[in-house]
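Can anyone check this?
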Amino acid sequence: MHRIVCTLAAALSVLVTAQAHAAYPDHPIKIVVPFPPGGGTDAVARVLAQKLGDKLGQTVIVENRPGAATVIGAQAVARAAPDGYTLMISGSSTYSVLPALKKDLPYKPLASFEQIGIVALAPSVLVGKPDLAATSLADLVALAKAQSSKGGVTYGTFGAGSAPHLAGEMFAQTIGATMLAVPYKGSAQLTTALIGGELDWAVDTVASAAPHVNAGRMKAFAVSGDHRMPQLPNVPTLKEAGLPPSAGLVGWYGFVAPASTPAPIIDTIRKATEDVMQDAEVRKVFTTNGFEPVMLGRDAFRDKVNAEIAQFTAVAQRGAISMD
């Protein structure tokens, strides 16, 4: 009798679980963004939230949980119930930059999450102050090398270990020059300093820099990524300008759920996301904001994280960069 009861209980459990999966989603879904409102990650999340809500037939809200260079939001999602109702969109800083530069993170970049997919790539642009004595990437390289023995040209960052810091060090190591990193509190402050001539050059997002470049307030030397950006059609890629693509940083946005979220739920979210990423309106919004819309699945996501952690760890060790 005991065996029969146990068997019936197990069967009932499977049935209830299957019904729960089949009913998903039956209440609102939350997408956590570990950044303040208004940034690139927030823009990506809000576009996806609206369209995913339409696809899944439920409200999808965006919850901003900034702090500790995205650690607070990422940790909250890693510890959330694996039921498909708490998701996260974050940039490569969460999945590869932080794991390469910071010890003892309270989450694992891959093991703590189920990877839904990479939904956007975000090429960056190398920009200079308006009166910098360089008009091309070759000129910038020559200037940086010439100034190495004098302390180096200056470039802006958001502090030690930030993406602009890592990008600047990648460029410096590629061309064999010494440069001086200058920290700022954020993109707006850095942009003001560059336009005002306090800095020699910086790495910025295409969306942020393009209006200033097109207005003549700063110079653009090259974009990272595989092709030119529509906002800056006359600016060559790093490869076109004579440097390997590894000299630049291409950001990206990954969509995840907590680890152990059931496969049927992940499949439902992934299929809806794939459909959303084919939506013409979504693709237009992404492109207008300087992003390249993509849908790279779990394997590509994991391969990219592993490759970048190895790359960024090596760059950080050579450049003595740490966030600890």
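Reply from J.R.: I decoded it. Residues 8-20 have pLDDT under 50 and may be disordered.
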